[in-house]
Structure formats: structure tokens, C-alpha cells
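S.,

Sequence below, as promised.
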Amino acid sequence: MYPENDMTKLLQRSFFGCLIHASVLLTSALATSAQAGGDIPDSWYLEGANRPKELRSLEGKPAPELVTQAWIGEPTTIAANRGKVIVVDFWATWCGPCMAAIPENVELVKKSVGKPLAFIGIHDSNSGWNNAPQVVQSKGINYPVAQDKGASAKAYKLLFWPTYVVIDHEGIVRAAGLMPSHVAEVVEMLLAKVPAASTSGINSASYFGGSARPEWMKAMEGTTAPALPKDAQWIGTPVTAEARQNQVVVMQFFSPQGDASMKQLQQLNEIAPEFVPQGVVIMGVCDARAKWLVTKKMIDGKKINLSVMQDNPVPSVVGSKTPIMLGTTAAAMGVRLSPTTVIIDRSGKVRAVGVRPDKVKEMINVILAESISTTSIPSK
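The prediction came back faster than expected:
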């Protein structure tokens, strides 16, 4: 047994310890709730506070990509709409409540013209798709509609139709299982949180040389990125025009003989697992003058898993005073030295030339947060 005074102290410590522990748990719970969209009332969801835990588990996490097999309207993806608030309506023509909610969907899209909102309808994979074209026409559906392959419903843990999922401009699920009558309210809440930076230019401090960087680094920015040579040699999977479409592309011009070049290529290799699933292509472009077999050995030895292309040589002209180029692709991009990092946005425009290694992730995130239609040009 404890003496009375000691027992009193022990109980006091235990009591205050429990209070502190409870406070920590409450703070953590509130933070998690806020991250997952806790400012949305339970009454706005189908089944209210008793809505399925499966749907709750989606909130606060990156939205899974859609897997579809047919489209009515312009095909799209979650990644292609980064920078916008996205509404995904899982529906079917055989579902009465789904059909009844379509006019609200149409009205929301009409009211949101000019705003960063994407609305996507995903139809059940099992039955009813054959009636979708007629429904789209008769109901005046003004957003793209796709037939699921079944994988989308599984990824979004569907338990009933319709299921509305709202995703914020950063690609995070904020609400899953909303009642149709409250979708517009959640959209307005999330649109208000889209930062102005999502459509702004890029700070000059992100470049080598800052505002004083060479003119050749600025010359190509805002122009359409040139095509890659079809006859180039590759390490890894060749990056085709199709693979670049609607993707942010990071191109690292490098020389295997340069320590700085290889270090920056390794840094890009390290961040690739984070960004590739978000719709980013990261690739290397090797100096055309380098020995290709040596390059292959170095890439393999450093365990670099990026696609790497050897640039084609620039034909030499006797007596020419033109600066020595690293290859035809480098010349087309205006790149005159290695290492040089070039970033192309999802509309296919060259957005940044000469990015500092410590600013690459930041710049990728800025460009990912823009909608494809964004045409802002970096600060020069």
C-alpha cells in the first residue's frame, strides 16, 4: 500500500496525465477530421453520421485514378484535372435516384463556367451503358461520361448509386457519399480554397542565375515543346508523344562525364516515385557527344530507373561561330550546357529552362496545380 500523501500525489498525476492524453487524442482527431474535410456536416451525406466507413476511409487521401473503357464527350482523368475541384458522380441509367439527380449536375456545371471545376460521370460497368447515349442527349448532360471497367468502383469502395465524390485542387478526396442536394455546397467550399498560386507564374528565384539568368534559357519558355527524334536510342522505355500528352514532363540534359549532371539525374530518380503517379514524366537527355556504352554502364551502375535518350548529334559546320550544342533536341530547346533541367507543362508548352535542383519539386507542384488550359508564363 502507498502512504496517504503518496497515494494522493499518484492519483493527481494519473488524473492530469489522462487529461493530457485525452487532449492529445482530441487534437489529433480534430486535425485528421479537418484534413479529411471535417468542416462538412454529417447531415450532407447519405446515411449521415452512420455512412459507411469504407467511404470515410477515402477522405484525406489522394484520389485514385479512374479506369474506363468508353466515353461520351471528351475523355479525361483525375491527373489531367489537377488544379481544379473535381466531382465524380458514380451513376447508372437503371438507377432512379441517379437519373433524378442529373438536372442538379447539369445546373452545377452551367453555374461553374469559368471556374476551376471538372465534373465527371462514371457509369456502372455491369449494365445500362447501352442506354447512356440517349440519356446524355435527353437530359442535356454537359459533362463527360464514361463506362467504368469495374476498377474505379472498387478503388472508390462503392456501396450504392449514386455515389458522389468531391476532390480538391490538390487531388485529395474531401467528401465521399454526399447527397446530390449538397454537392454544389461542397464544391463552393473547395473552390474558395483554391489558391491564387495555382494559376500564377513561377518565381525567378527558382532558376540558376535568378532574374539575371542567360537569355538563351528564357527564349523557349512559353513556346510549344519540340518533338523528340524518332530514331533516338533509349535506355528504358522510350518516351513517345502519346506518353507526354497531358503530362508534366521534366527533361534533364546531362553529360555522363559531369559529376553535377549525374548527381542531378540521381536526384530526379529519387523523386520519380512521388511524381510519376501524379502524371509527371521524368527523363534524361544525354549529350550526343558522349559514348553511349559508357552512359549505359553509368546509368546501370547508379541504379537510375528513368528513361534516358541519347540526343542526336548536330551536324558540324566548318568555320561556324555557333555555340557547341549538346545535340539536336538540346538545340531545339535552346539548351547550351549540362546539366540543364527543362519542365514542360501539360499543354505541351516549355515552362521552365534552367531550374535549380533544390527547386524542381516545388516547380513541379506549381505546374501540377494548374489546369491544362492555363497559359501563364514563368517570371522572366
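The CA atoms of residues 103 and 273 lie 41 Å apart.

Coffee later?
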